[in-house]
Write a structure and sequence with these properties.
CATH architecture: 2-Layer Sandwich
Number of strands: 5
CATH topology: Tetrahydropterin Synthase, Chain A
Order of helices and strands: HEEHEHEE
Largest sheet: 5 strands, mixed
Shape: elongated
Structural class: alpha+beta
Strand order of the largest sheet: 3-1-2-4-5
Length: about 130
């Protein structure tokens, strides 16, 4: 995947002419607590140093800043919180899988075509979410 975030300025017009779509992935860390209190899955309150990764399709370079801001806004809402208190997670177990779905829906709500979202709960545990073609 091509990342344009390292470019000091937007590419010249000949470079961007004919650009149809580019997949861009960004990562963000966050810290949050959660607990599980549902039948068959009970754990006391504990915290993680989480990490998200989201991949979207962009049609122009101006969308990159909007994508970055959408991720930062989501992280701001969950960083240093108890995930169980989040309205979106009401009546849901706050797992990495559920967070990946929430992030996907957040980015779609911001107008992005999301390829995939991933949430890392711990070193060897990632959950991914994407829309499957029907």
């Amino acid at each position: 995947m091509k990342s344009f975030s390292n470019l000091s300025k937007a590419p010249s017009a000949p470079y961007t002419q004919g650009m149809s779509r580019v997949r861009l992935s960004l990562r963000r860390p966050f810290v949050a607590d959660h607990f599980h209190d549902l039948p068959g899955f009970v754990e006391a309150r504990h915290g993680h140093n989480w990490e998200l990764e989201a991949t979207v399709e962009l049609h122009d370079f101006q969308q990159e800043a909007h994508f970055s801001n959408a991720l930062d806004g989501w992280v701001k809402d969950v960083d240093y919180t108890l995930l169980n208190d989040q309205p979106w997670l009401s009546q849901r177990n706050p797992t990495a899988e559920t967070l990946a779905q929430w992030l996907l829906e957040h980015l779609e709500g911001a107008g992005f075509h999301v390829t995939e979202t991933r949430i890392r709960e711990k070193t060897n545990y990632w959950a991914a979410c994407r829309r499957e073609a029907v």
